[in-house]
UniProtKB/TrEMBL annotation:
Protein name per UniProt: Polymerase/histidinol phosphatase N-terminal domain-containing protein
InterPro entries membership: PHP_dom, PHP_domain, Pol/His_phosphatase_N, Pol/histidinol_Pase-like
Pfam families linked: PHP, PHP_C
SMART domains in alphabetical order: POLIIIAc
Domain of life: Archaea
Sample GO molecular function, one term: 5'-3' DNA exonuclease activity
Domain Polymerase/histidinol phosphatase N-terminal residues, every copy: 4-63
PANTHER family cross-referenced by the UniProt entry: EXONUCLEASE, POLYMERASE_HISTIDINOL PHOSPHATASE N-TERMINAL DOMAIN-CONTAINING PROTEIN
Amino acid sequence: MLKIDFHVHTYYSDGKESPKEMLNYALKVGLNGIAITDHDTSKAHITFKNKFVIPGQEVTTEFGHVVILCNFPPSPPRKISELIDYAKENSCIVFPSHPFDIFRKGIGHKVFNYNFHAIEIFNSKAPKSANKKAEEVAKQLGLPGLANSDSHIEYALGSAYNVVNLSEFDIDEILDNIRKNRIEAVGIGLTVKAKFEIAKWYIQRKLRIEKDTSRIMREV
């Protein structure tokens, strides 16, 4: 049995740690692997290759965030219809992340308009009401439900994962198990320490962005 988190960020987008640090911490807390899904970039997969990392992206589409998982570093289009075609042509998986979290670019009821492979029904950072709605919609559509941490810091890892009935970490087999709904979503929730570290990282990023913006304005 494998425990895998399909939604993880690194410092190649808005995460704090490196891909290696995120994987090492994931293994430390009992996961067997992760999908690195930085926002609109596959840089992590070009600089860091490991058999326990599934290549992916969290794509900013015209309606909100959608995750794509492949067995290679993807270069996906950002229009949902084209993204789904790209996934089909390349044997990838696509699912809307935190679809009913209106504060974090969820695609909302657009989930009914497209043929996704699964739906993220538990996101560790999403409100309970948003996760509950996503779970209801997944059941309504007969789609697999996934539970993910959406980690931007290492301490959030382990707060959600998916159990896959495989003995070996084979990316193609894992993706196929998602397609066939042979997966169990496990949502645990963030620890107090994780919540504190997330808040601290948010403040650090905000101050850094403001500092960079101020510097750019002075240079203009």
